[in-house]
Amino acid sequence: PLLLTRPPSDNMREILQNVAKAHGVSNMRKLGHLNNFVKLLNSVDHHEQKFGFSYEEIIICLRLALLNEVKEVRAAGLRALRYLIRDRGVLQKVLQLQVDYLISRCLDIQQSNEVEQTQALRLLTRIIAVDAALFPSSVTNSLVAVGNNGLHEHEKDHVVLACNAILCELAVKNPELVAGRGGLSTLLKNVLDCQHSRINEALISTVLHLLNHPQTRQYVRADVELEQILAPYTDFHYRHNPDTTEAQLKTDREARFSSSKMAIVAAFRSWSGIINLCKVGNSGIQSLIGLLCIPNMEIRKALLEVLYEIFRLPVPMVTADFEEALHSIDPSRPQDGWRLGDGFVAAEAKVLLPHRARSRPDLLDNYLALILSTLISFGLLEGLVEVVTSSDDVLSVRATVLLGELLHTASSLLPHSHSHHLHCLPTLINMAASFDISPEKHALMMNLRDSQILNHKQNLEWNWVLISTVLKWPNSNLRNFRDEQVHKFVRRLLYFYKPSSKLYCVLELEHPKAPQLTLAGCQLINFLLDSEDDGQVYLEDLVKDIVQWLSSFSGLKSERSLQSNGLLNTLSQHYFLFLGALSGQPSGVKAMEKCGAFQCLLNLCSMKNQDSLLKLTVSTLDYSRDGLARIILSKILTAGSDNCRLYATKHLRVLLRANVEFFSNWGIELLVTQLPDHSKAVSMEALDILDEACEEKANLHALIHMKPALTHLGDKGLLLLLRFLSIPKGFSYLNERGYVSQQLEKWHREYNLKYVDMVEELMNEALTTYRKPVDGDNYVRRSNQRTDRTLSSVLWLNANFLMSTFQNVVPDLSYTVRSPVLDTWEGIKQLKAALWALGNIGSSNWGVNLLQEENIIPDIITLAQSCEVLSIRGVCIYVLGVISRTRQGSEVLKVLGWDSVRHGRRQQWPIVEEMETRLPGELSSIPSTLSLNSESNSSQRESESESQPSDSVQFPRLCSSFPGLYFVDDEVDGVERCEDVSVCVRSKPVKDRSPFTILSSSRLVRNRFLNSLPLPSMKPRSVSDPKHPAGGKKSPEELQPGTIRRNRTLTEPSTGCVHNTSPAPSHPLYPGRVHHIHKHFHQPQSLYSDGMYQV
To answer: Is the dihedral of CA 972, 976, 981, 986 positive or negative?
Structure first.
């Protein structure tokens, strides 16, 4: 045992003597002394004087341990060396004594020496951490050899992966050494050997990182080495390993497709990958897309999967049924987390209802637009049409779904000058239906008789499809049809639905006919409401019965009682749906008040341990009118249990996104009352909802008027305070309290650089499948969390802060852009910070004027086109996208050859403005003053003949069909988009993309139950059909005077191919009819930062 009370020199002498002895000391004792050596190093400072020996003497003794015949002793010797190497001087002495050759010997994977290999690999990571420039080439050769041949030794896969990880780290810190020893080729070879997405991503990202900067780009031959990842697709006879047998060929080919797909997708998440793979001319991606026209079903199937991944789209199930394929990717299909016992309506609405953001920039749209336009110019759409028309049914369906998604994305994100030809493709699917329903009375009576409801009382054997048809019949109610048979029809339905009858309410939620029965019940409520006085008696009879049933819960004391009463697993919970339908109509509210329904619900609010009852109450009532429903909601928000208060608070987000009328008058007040809640989860949820609510100026004004206390809520509360700066009233409020000057100083000191890190971190996280470790978790796990909304919030807040406080920093920022320092990463970061600041300042008309005065926009464009650091080009494109948010910014950029989208992201059928080209005199002849001839740039040009992208590889020329790229215009209301309102175009009323009208606010909420109710599929009308609900309704436009000549709407695509990608909340319920939305395309979003995942 080691006695730390002894002098360190005595302990060191004893340890080294025993380790160096060739005889007389057992291997177990040597192992113990080596472990004591580590303990001794950890207990004293590293000084030769304390040890009593020089580092050379210590290393010589430890070196003998690496020659021991026992692997455990050798492993302990490697461990001792790792703890000894603390600085560059010790490392140099280790290498001078040629210990690196012994380390290489330990990496031999042909031996059974796992413990030794592990310690050797740990020692190598320490050497890289101390000084990668001193990393020995002998060990590099061993790492490359293991990486090239080790994967054939399946039991050693973990060692091979560790060697590849060390090669990646070394390539980032010492690329010259790795490239000189063939390490980059090894990494690319292993990319196609690896089916683990995380590892594959790390390998290819290392190569992409080297391609990003001119100083390291010379080590990679992008046109040869990088395009290896395309080989499994472009080479029909590709064999990764020559010894692969014919029997193994199919399995091996599928594995290579998987690896190649991961690498291609990762490359498209980086600017260096996009630029090098999409170069004008014989680019690899152009060859890849061209393969769609070759009738090879295996290649086509694999390429479609790649395209789905690139555009972040859900892949449909393998089926030849188009309807089934669409349903498999419908984001509104029921999920486990939407059940009553889980997140319920609040969780469903958060996923399906679109965020209220209107003015925040969205860099994901810029990224998608760039990728889409580039691939379209390479013939992507034509290739997909070929797949649709010349493949089997399964591939044809999958290609059709992808084509519809891309056409819709193109119409939304691409400028008209680059998308006007997209909808000229042949019509591939024409799904239109024309239902000729006669409203005559005899036809109604025929359906009534055929429903069997008048013939017998076997309720479940009735024809519920015809019953729904009768209830939805145009103008059908008891006032218009006073036939006794109709009254008998209603009485039998009422008896079936009454809780006292024990018929409907005892059926299980999973009953096959449960969806139809619930829909028919909601339609019956609307039928009776439309019948006015004639249906009031029946309506009150049903409501009284439901109230009596609700009163039975007053004696319940726990959720077990609810279970025994059947509420959690029977259709009885759908009675709250009926009450919700009643609360949406004045006559229904009158009936509920008369029968005591509201009082009964208020009594339920006072009960404890009845969370399910309160969740049902909150989720189904209509809050569009001031009345008892809002009182019930307010009581649950303040008097319920922690879980109930949290759910009720979450439901306020549902009401916000559902656009309930006058939410700013009462909803903001309810949210503010939740901020001081003793439950942190409730207060933070309310804060998050307020942050989203402030996207609307009316809500922001209401919040500022209430002057809430936010500073105690941490950083998120401070960020919400920053929103106050976007309007004069809020700016004055904060300026009076000294908040503005405090934040201004903080921005100058640290936030400008921290902002770059935040944006890049969020963009990387948004584009990858993984997240960084949090809360002390050192393992990076798979995550489906979306961070793009957080990113847009960061961009928006910084823009408002800069616009409100910065007027004198533009010259300094412009100087940084015009004189970039690209030799160091610190200089690159300073340049990015300046670019983001200028972009955020230029996101308003006032800011654009400042940029024009400084004439900095042409310099930003020059960087976007020709900067040798490729990630800077990407930042410039994002920055130009932020500048294009206003009409003035769009026009300035149009003059400079860059197009932008001039409509908001929520305009489903935008107006295309054809404007006469106006060339401002002050811009038409202004050249860029930017000089990129820095030392690092000029020194590399001579040596980068093949490795550096050619001059034609500039973003405006990535797609050869147009002179400039584009960036997505973020949605800003007409008044916000430009100060001169006269040049704005008033858009037409938004048309629905599907034949279903967008649901009104509160009715949307109570239809949570209808989400899982499958109805018989019905072919929707084409939007071009004059009978379509949205067709033929064009309101006249009032054009403001200016240079606009005329307006034109984009051609609407077939509804069978493309549907609204804004998530539909739930299935709309209308008075008299219910539609089931069974086709819904989902459009995920993504973005990217600086061209490289941090390795």
So the answer is: positive
